[in-house]
Amino acid sequence: MSALSSFVLGASIRLLENTEHRNEQKFTFLCHISPYQTIHTRIRKLTKKFVADLYKALKRPEESEKRNFILSYLSTAYADLKDTHPNIPVFPDVLKVLSDNINSHDVIVLNAAPKSQSNIKLNKKYNFIIGGNKLGRGLTIPRLLVTYYGRAVARPQVDTLMQHARMCGYRSKDLIVTRVFIPDDIAELFEEICEHDTVQRDIIKNHNIENTLYLNRDNLSPSRPNVIPNSVGAYKPGQLKFPKVPEFHKGVIEEVTNYVNEQVLNITQPSKSVEINVDTVIDILNKIPVLVEGGWRTKVIVQYLSWYKANRSNSINMIYNIDTNIGLSKSRGNREIGSVLSPRMQHLVNEIDKNRPLVIFIRNKGIKEDWDEEDFWIPVFRFPEKENSILFNLSNT
Length: 397
Prior knowledge:
Layout: H1 2-17, E1 27-32, H2 37-59, H3 67-82, H4 91-101, E2 105-110, E3 126-131, E4 144-149, H5 158-165, E5 179-181, H6 184-206, E6 212-215, E7 233-235, E8 240-241, E9 245-246, H7 250-264, E10 274-277, H8 278-287, E11 290-292, H9 298-311, E12 315-324, H10 343-351, E13 358-364, E14 376-382, E15 389-392
Parallel strand pairs: 1-3, 1-4, 2-3, 4-5, 6-15, 12-13
Antiparallel strand pairs: 7-15, 8-14, 9-11, 10-12, 13-14
């Protein structure tokens, strides 16, 4: 309901603004959640039911039992669009355009069924596309305003996911009314792929690709092995990484916190840099659990440290801090922690030799509302600046 409401309102706003030729005033909603035709049929029925209920609520309100229900969703969608549209038309005017034009709609199914359309032909103002594998590769959907994406698989193929992301095409002129509805785990996967892709491009452009260290290459499952490289994750020299959300639950973290306390607190004072044995760091990193990894990969960092020990040195630099009060970032929807380094700590870190690996251990208080009343450790790792770039197997970490 939320996604469909956002689409019909966004398209109506564009129709009301009338900024392009009438032939271009054909807008699209995409639902891509499953390869199964039975599900596509069900979604098609639900979409047509939504349009019918919407039509009755706007055109024949006295006959509509769902008018208040429909209007509440439209009102919520309008409030959301208002956040990104600086000069959004007033709500009654948008509803008027929606009411006047909703008859111009089409529900299109793109899959392998015999009666499925073979390609996308937009003939209506409001076009609802539901699809499966036909949406998989190289497809750009015209005037796509809202995407409802939930295509999850046990082993995501990175090149296929990148092709799926291309379905959105170039949307600069419609961004103020563009929305994507996607589960958090898939959104995080897209975000991570994008981040690693950006890093790889930077490595190719600005670093010596011949001095790249390849880790964990054995299990990648690309759908086109002759096209995509064997390693898709990337860390570049000088990068500082930490988990998106550390593990903080009391029943899980108590013994770990006590163990890291014993290993770290007696080595030196807080905020004092010291050399530490690589094996000790590996042991600690393997002990600290992570709730949401984000760009952090314990396995890859441990593999890198093993390589560093074998080829460079048996020790790296370490600094730690205790009694920090880090919470989840409100500006990021409480889905990840905020900055882990205070300005003072950042200054100290900047003074430590950047040409050697640096591990930072942050013991955070568990007293904030975000946490579970138990202190927990957050690992942070900085790769050396004048060292190898690192490529690794993103799907095997």
